[in-house]
Specification:
Largest sheet: 6 strands, mixed
Order of helices and strands: HEEHHHEEHEEEEEEHHHHH
Shape: elongated
Number of strands: 10
Number of helices: 10
Radius of gyration: 24 Å
Helix content: 25-40%
Structural class: alpha+beta
Strand content: 5-15%
């Protein structure tokens, strides 16, 4: 047994003892292929790989789902050849209760330092991994050079990192929030026409509408994380309450856009969020 093989297996056992499910990676930072019994998911894929959890195969099959904290499997004969051929050790962040923000380049790192709360950081060959305590959906390319690795994903283990680990913030969760696709041409940024009227006005007095717009501005202004999602949900709430009677005017829309842009949203992003909210409500 060569030293690298022993070292990687011992590293995997140490991770497993800390509740971090490891798995071996072959050259190219990719998992080992499925065994003969699991080829083409003939085994059913546990079940069809749609939910997080370990694979029941005694060999390192099914990618991220091979990760386990069972020392019997890690030391077992099914993994013996994998450890001999392994090039690195990875782990399943979601199985450890973690989310990894994978930053691939200097630009992505600069964005993280300006936008995300400080947390434990691990240096990688191209950038950094920012580790947060919490589990979320994994997604690639949520921003240029930024991937999220948590449930149903794996990350290469490159050391414990430095710094105190923070709780998973809403601003990271919001990176995977998808708005409904717009199905109509987007209006201009700050001159979005108010929805057509025709229905009975429920506001009775302008004070009701003014209070609604002011509360929406306050909600956007007070947001400390998940700005993108907050803006969209606020636009949706305003249109749901005030968008069908014709009382909502361009000046009100402009105030909402101004509040969003003051929090860092671009005019185009505001327009897209407004249009998607209109589409969602059928206005």
């Amino acid at each position: 047994m060569t030293q690298p093989t022993a070292f990687r297996r011992e590293l995997a056992l140490r991770l497993a003892a800390r509740g971090v499910p490891p798995l071996p990676l072959r050259a190219g930072k990719v998992p080992f292929g499925n065994c003969t019994s699991c080829t083409a998911n003939m085994c059913g894929g546990r079940p069809n790989m749609k939910t997080p959890g370990p694979c029941s195969c005694p060999q390192p099959c099914h990618g991220w789902a091979a990760a386990t904290t069972d020392p019997g499997i890690i030391n077992g004969p099914g993994w013996e050849r994998a450890w001999r051929d392994a090039a690195a050790v990875a782990y399943h962040p979601g199985g450890a209760g973690l989310a990894v923000v994978d930053l691939d380049d200097a630009e992505a790192i600069a964005w993280a330092r300006a936008s995300l709360p400080a947390t434990r950081t691990v240096r990688t060959t191209r950038g950094e991994h920012w580790l947060y305590q919490g589990v979320m959906q994994s997604a690639n390319a949520v921003r240029p050079g930024v991937d999220i690795k948590s449930t149903m994903s794996y990350a290469r283990y490159l050391g414990p990192g430095t710094g105190r680990m923070a709780a998973l913030p809403d601003v990271v969760r919001a990176l995977v929030v998808k708005e409904p696709a717009a199905v109509r041409p987007a209006p201009r940024a700050a001159t979005v026409p108010a929805p057509p009227g025709g229905g009975e006005c429920r506001h009775r007095t302008p004070t009701y509408l003014e209070r609604g717009i002011a509360m929406a501005e306050q909600r956007i202004t007070a947001a400390r994380a998940g700005i993108h999602a907050t803006v969209y949900r606020t636009f949706l709430a305003v249109l749901s309450t005030h968008g069908r009677c014709g009382c909502l005017a361009d000046v009100h829309v402009a105030r909402l856009f101004a509040a969003a842009q003051a929090k860092g949203e671009s005019p185009r992003h505001c327009t897209d969020a407004w249009t998607n909210a209109l589409t969602t409500l059928g206005l």
